[in-house]
Specification:
The complex is a heterotrimer of chains A (about 250), B (about 280) and C (about 270). With about 250 residues, chain A is of the alpha/beta class. Helix content of chain A is about 35%, strand content about 25%. Chain A has a 6-stranded mixed beta sheet, with helices on both faces. In chain C, the strands form 2 sheets. In chain C, strands 6-7-8-3-9-10 form a 6-stranded mixed beta sheet, sandwiched between helices. In chain C, a hairpin with a 2-residue loop joins strand 4 and strand 5. In chain C, about 45% of the residues lie in helices and about 25% in strands. Chain C is an alpha/beta fold. Chain C has a domain of about 190 residues: 3-Layer(aba) Sandwich (Rossmann fold). The chains are: A alpha/beta (about 250), B mainly alpha (about 280), C alpha/beta (about 270). Chains A and C meet through helix 6, helix 7 and helix 9 of A and helix 8, helix 9, helix 10 and helix 11 of C.
């Protein structure tokens, strides 16, 4: 089943040059998708389009076959509940003046999801391996990795079908990074993930499908296995060659 | 390394600095005196109680003015007037300024540009000039017009500060997260923007309060403030001007009152800033 | 060997807390040494201590020698002389290392002039300009004549880092300290900048102290590596040994994590 479809989507800020041009993309339930691109590729703009935060300059974006209409309140409530996000910077993505319980509960309250808020928050925190006591504390009491877990808890508290993650491990240390990957892997049993990142290694760990973006265009897309083993587009080849790897010292 | 998020100070427990204490004491003293005048004054502030221009004595702690009224009583009443003007002006400045500032922060680029330019022009006008225009446009000088004029004049400064602070908060990822969570713009203001800009705004309100007190004194000095027999400090100063060489205490006493309140407010604001911003405190 | 940097038993303390303790390392001419660690490991502080630039309130003890001259306890004036002459530093974010209001050519020229003054000589305007152009070409900045007139914000991240490297080279340093020099760059740009650094260090026979949290990057950029954790050295040795057969459990964890990401991309090469 397709969750979000982008058809011939282009986007430009004001009258500037298009940041994205002619994007066709389908996000299917159960298939984790990795969107890989470097700075200026338009990957952040795709993410904002997928979240319904900006409207395409041309083309269509639909959610379960219906066009995304920010003016339609009841539609947006269903959409927001189903599509959540985690952001890059674990420091700026949590309001420093709110307690963890209020941060995690925000989607439940804003979307008026009738549920036992405290229980739902506790469940989300335990799903990201944080103790229940964390709920009463403030963001500055946590490390970067723990903050990212809190952000993930907020993203899953409404039990969404799709979680979009924007460079979620870039700001983290290697050992923390690998634990977040493990956590996302567990979560992807219940939720489809769309990972937007410049790091093809991270994306490849979790996604069945890949989209390679360069300067606002999709240059290659398909199953991750195919793209990684036989990249067709020169840019993909260069990206793979440039990705640093620990030399094999054996 | 430590995280450096100075704008986004985490909630902290109050820690009182000496500055804050001195400021709060001075301001508190004025408030107590101001409230006291509602129920009791040493003399009737309008009654002639002794010789004219008498020097300080046990009966008249600050002496008397040129009509023989007790100066200490007038200064006490002046504290009440200064504080009411401060409270009134800051309330007006805060409600208009914060609202406009938030609107500008949320507005589209064009609207924001227009609002920002308007505010810049308003700020360029001296408060006094603006107040004179407003007083001139209304029926005549009264305590109300003074409060209104000073409030309007300071609201542009509050608005500009609010706009800058709110913009900074709106750029944070947690605002995007809130939008994704389905939080409305009003909800975002209430839950995220106001709590994060409040500490800085409060400090500014305290400073604006001090400026309002000075502005009121200046207006009264020019005869644009509360008309007689309201004993505004500015009017006391103005009346004492003619006799400053023969009876200097008539100018010194209200001067001390004015300066002590404004210094108190500024120290209080500085102290608040230290409390609100933990990065300043660590030094 | 010609030891450029010798750190012995370095400890850094701040407000009663120990941030770095007992770190020893040395870099000789032509040697590429990596300092790897995660956030809070003290790797950047070690680099700052090496050039006498620790933030106020931090105290260093032990010994830091730059080309045989002691840095700890030396006066500012002495250390300033050593900084350009012996060691130059490149930081993670070139945008903050460059003056936003000054054209890039002017910024490089200023460093050239300072070096010439230091050597007690003088250069004409055209000579300085020629050297700036030469340096910009050396770091493979495209169209140096045009780019010299550009402001930092008009350049890409990779170009800015190249410009920062050109400024470092303008000092003619014998030791290059690079603190996360490619972390802020795109993957493809990172590969180019790493190649450039490798070439420059080899051709100028400079010493390189390369600081990073990124194992694969360090693994390709240096010959010898030291692993820092919470301010203490846990392991050191040739890269092949430390990453090939890590002994300390912490290093084992790091290597395993890095390998997991590498394996995901698989046999792509």
């Amino acid at each position: 089943m397709s969750l979000i479809d982008l058809t011939a989507v282009s986007f430009a800020y004001g009258r500037g040059r298009p940041v994205l041009d002619g994007i066709d993309l389908r996000i299917e339930a159960g298939h984790n998708l990795g969107i890989v691109g470097e700075s200026g590729s338009g990957k952040t703009t795709i993410l904002r389009l997928l979240l319904g935060l900006v409207r395409p300059s041309s083309g269509d974006i639909s959610f379960r076959g219906a066009p995304i209409d920010p003016g339609d309140r009841s539609f947006m409530r269903v959409f927001r509940r189903a599509v959540q996000a985690v952001f890059q910077d674990p420091y700026s993505s949590l309001d420093p003046r709110q307690k963890i319980v209020d941060i995690v509960a925000e989607p439940l309250r804003s979307l008026k999801i009738a549920t036992d808020v405290d229980a739902a928050v506790a469940e989300a925190l335990s799903a990201v391996d944080l103790p229940r006591e964390a709920a009463g504390r403030y963001p500055h009491e946590f490390s970067g990795g723990q903050r990212q877990r809190i952000a993930i808890a907020r993203a899953i508290v409404s039990q969404p079908e799709l979680v979009l993650a924007d460079e979620v491990v870039s700001a983290l240390d290697l050992t923390t990074r690998i634990r977040i990957v493990e956590l996302l892997n567990v979560l992807s049993a219940n939720t489809t993930l769309v990972l937007v990142s410049h790091d093809i290694g991270f994306v490849a760990l979790l996604c069945q499908d890949l989209v390679i973006l360069e300067k606002g265009h999709i240059v290659e897309q398909g199953p991750a296995r195919d793209i990684l083993s036989a990249p067709k587009h020169p840019y993909t080849q260069r990206l793979l060659e440039s990705t640093p790897r620990l030399p094999d010292f054996a | 390394m430590t995280d450096t998020t100075p704008v986004l100070a985490p909630p902290t427990s109050m820690r009182v600095t000496p500055t804050f204490l001195i400021g709060a004491t001075l301001v508190g003293l004025h408030i107590v005196v101001g409230l006291l005048t509602l129920v009791w004054t040493p003399y009737d502030p309008t009654a002639m109680t002794g010789g004219r221009l008498a020097p300080p004595s046990l009966a008249h702690w600050a002496g008397t003015d040129r009509l023989g009224r007790d100066l200490f009583t007038e200064i006490m009443v002046g504290a009440r007037i200064a504080l009411s003007v401060g409270i009134g002006a800051v309330t007006i400045a805060a409600s208009i300024g914060v609202t406009l500032g938030l609107l500008a922060a949320f507005a589209s680029r064009t609207v924001d540009d227009v609002l920002a330019a308007t505010l810049d022009i308003l700020i360029a006008f001296p408060t006094l000039l603006l107040a004179m225009l407003i007083v001139a446009a209304s029926d005549g000088a009264s305590l109300g017009t003074a409060i209104f004029a000073i409030g309007i004049a300071s609201s542009s400064i509050v608005a500009r500060l609010t706009r800058i602070l709110a913009r900074r908060v709106l750029a944070m990822d947690y605002i995007t997260a809130a939008r994704v969570s389905g939080t409305s713009w009003l909800g975002i203001v209430r839950i995220h923007v106001l709590p994060n800009i409040w500490p800085t705004l409060i400090v500014n309100f305290a400073l604006q309060f001090g400026l309002a007190v000075i502005a009121e004194a200046s207006l009264s000095y020019l005869g644009l403030g509360a008309p007689p027999p309201n004993a505004s400090w500015g009017r006391l100063l103005q009346e004492a001007q003619a006799t400053v060489y023969t009876a200097p205490f008539g100018a010194i006493a209200p001067g001390i009152a004015l300066v002590s309140l404004v210094i108190g407010l500024n120290l209080f604001a500085d102290g608040l800033r230290d409390v609100a911003d933990p990065t300043r405190r660590r030094r | 060997m010609d030891e450029l940097l010798t750190i012995e038993n370095l400890s850094i303390r701040h407000a009663g807390r120990s941030l770095v303790s007992g770190v020893s390392l040395s870099v000789a001419a032509g040697e590429r040494v990596g300092l790897i660690g995660e956030s809070g490991s003290g790797k950047s502080l070690t680099a700052l201590a090496a050039i006498g630039l620790l933030p106020d309130g931090m105290t260093a003890s032990g010994s830091v020698g730059l080309a045989g001259r002691q840095v700890i306890g030396a006066t500012d004036r002495e250390v300033v002389g050593l900084r350009g002459a012996v060691a130059a530093t490149i930081f993670q974010e070139p945008l903050t290392a460059l003056d936003p209001l000054m054209r890039i050519g002017g910024q490089i020229a200023e460093v050239v002039r300072r070096r010439v003054r230091r050597d007690g000589r003088s250069l004409s305007r055209t000579e300085v300009l020629a050297e700036v152009m030469g340096l910009m070409a050396r770091v493979a900045l495209p169209d140096p004549a045009r780019l010299a007139r550009a402001y930092p914000h008009e350049m890409s991240g990779g170009q800015r880092q190249r410009a920062a490297i050109a400024m470092a080279l303008a000092c003619r340093p014998r030791l290059l300290i690079a603190d996360e020099p490619t972390t802020a760059l795109d993957v493809t740009t990172q590969a180019e900048v790493l190649k450039l650094l490798e070439m420059l260090v080899r051709e100028e026979n400079m010493g390189l102290l390369f600081i990073s949290h990124d194992l694969p990057v360090v693994g390709t950029a240096v010959d010898r590596v030291l692993v820092l954790r919470a301010g203490e050295l846990v392991e050191e040795g040739p890269v092949a040994e430390v990453f090939g057969q890590p002994r300390h459990p912490y290093t084992v964890g790091l290597v395993e994590a890095a390998r997991a990401f590498d394996q995901a991309i698989g046999a792509a090469l």
